[in-house]
What we know:
The complex is a heterodimer of chains A (336) and B (271).
Chain A: H1 2-13, H2 16-20, H3 47-57, H4 70-73, H5 126-130, H6 139-147, H7 150-160, H8 167-179, H9 187-192, H10 200-212, E1 227-228, H11 243-246, E2 255-256, H12 278-288, H13 297-300, H14 309-320, H15 325-328
Antiparallel strand pairs in A: 1-2
Helix pairs in contact in A: 3-7, 3-8, 10-14
Chain B: H1 2-23, E1 31-42, E2 45-46, E3 54-55, E4 61-62, E5 66-78, E6 83-85, E7 92-96, E8 106-110, E9 112-121, H2 125-128, E10 147-148, E11 153-162, E12 172-178, E13 194-199, E14 206-208, E15 212-221, H3 223-226, E16 239-240, H4 246-253, E17 257-267
Parallel strand pairs in B: 1-15, 12-16
Antiparallel strand pairs in B: 1-2, 1-8, 3-4, 5-6, 5-7, 5-9, 5-11, 9-13, 9-14, 10-11, 11-12, 15-17
Amino acid sequence: MVLGIILTIIIACQKADDVIDETIISFNKPSHFPEPVYNFASNPVSNAGFKLGRKLFYDAKLSRDNTISCGSCHIAEHGFTHHGHDVSHGIDDKVGIRNSMPLFNLAWSNSFFWDGGVFHLDLFPIAPIENVVEMDEKLPNVLNKIRASVEYKQMFQDAFGSPEINSTTMFKAMSQFMLTLVSDNSKYDQFIRKETTFTELELKGYKIFQAQCSSCHKEPLFTDLSFRDNGIGGNLANDQGRWEISQLETDRLKFKVPSLRNLSATAPYMHDGRFRTLEAVIRHYREEIQPTKNLDPILKKNMKINLTDQEVDELMAFLKTLNDETFLRNSLFQEQ
Amino acid sequence: MKANIILCSLLAVFTLFSCQKDKLEFDNNKTGQLKLKFDHIVNGKTLVLKNSQFSNSFKEQYNIDILKYYVSNIKLTDDKGKEFILPKKESFFLIDASNTESLFPKFQIPEGNYTKLEFVLGVDSLTSISPKEERTGVLDIEGNDMYWSWNSGYIFFKMEGESDASKNANKRYAYHIGLFGGYDSTKPTKNNLRTISLDLTKAGTATVQNNLSSDIHLMVDLGKVLDGPNKIKINEYSTVMVSGPNDLIADNYSGMFTHDHTHNFQKITNE
């Protein structure tokens, strides 16, 4: 909410950097959100930390040949996804096997990646940096590149009171940036805060959503953060999802339940981006669920989600209320 | 006459021993140095990185060019049953066969006669989920090459080398063993942490005295990695990391340590 107000000022001013010094960047829990899981006492968000984190996020020095930044595959106006790509291509145009996940409301997340392999945001950046198909660089090299920059020295000084640059302060700054990526001003949020009303269609769609979808896509984050097999079946990459981390047979083909916020900006869908449209996703749940071994019990019962064409229209209308334009267009979050 | 001499000398030895024992008084407030020496061998043959050939029970030939493992949570028990646990922060060592200095972890412990040595091979689960800022030194996630970034956790034990039996195109094999049970205690995952417990009484109790060093010499037989209770065929398992029989390998290497001997009352040198 507070962020929302800040954003309005910023959008009005156009050039975000001009106002960032007057704007106090902070993390504010939206009133209708649960308590965040990130321990902010260990890494309080500051203007200087946010600015440093943002600079690092958009710096291609993080990659081996200085061509790929985090922002290459996580584009702000697409909910920080690689819009249009089923799986992302990283360094030397190598492709990975997963669809780049949206980045928002990370302060509530207790695990990261489609398989939850990383359990703390502060430990996250090393994974894409050292992944050979993403940035393919070694962290000590990244630090050396950054240490060579006078500008960075000053920014670390401003953010952490010392010009010393190490992976802990680097990652904490990046966490500060990512933690402020809060999406809480969609029409849905405004409806919940009683600032607006839903149309009849949206209201009907909301009821259908609550009856048919919300057990996994739990409000207000629109994910319960669990790992589930939604019956889309395996893929050519033989990606086993959560099993790759846990090695538990009961985790085969289970993936993190993604948030439904900002859906219109984040296509394609699923862990491998196999569904290019939202219509294809709905079709899957109505007609194409596969009887895989670990298929979620909720889906196993009927092997489909029962929806009439009319109900699909209503549901689609509701899902569109989850697009948060204030978040997607926030120039503060974009490369400066 | 002969018997008398033997008896006499036995008596003398006895007296000598008891005298020595009586003389030693341990001051709990004083500490001495304890040094662990990790001596790497393979089936009785000295490990020379890259340059020595070994074979397993399947007659597969292999060499070893990378060998690193974590030793942590060191605990010693004295002859009175009293336990001393090395403070957590000082208790992590990365043994690296290519770094001679790393093969002799040393630390201060209270004076006493220690009869049992225990340590964890790996990085315990609490440390494995510790905040980024606490991961310093050998636990730093950068530069040690002992951390899985995509499945947050330390590699406890890493052994790599060349073998013609390997299925991999470059004829290399790699065993990276980790997994601490996972961060979600409600849904534990594989736990390959192993505690090594060694009785020191047979090959020499460690007598720790102020200003002196007691050196516990351990033989580490890496042949056990493939030929312990479980027989590992390089041709079948050329790469074992998060998947594969990592638990069987962990069971194997947990039996690779033997206590060879102890040197007590060593002068502390600056090595």
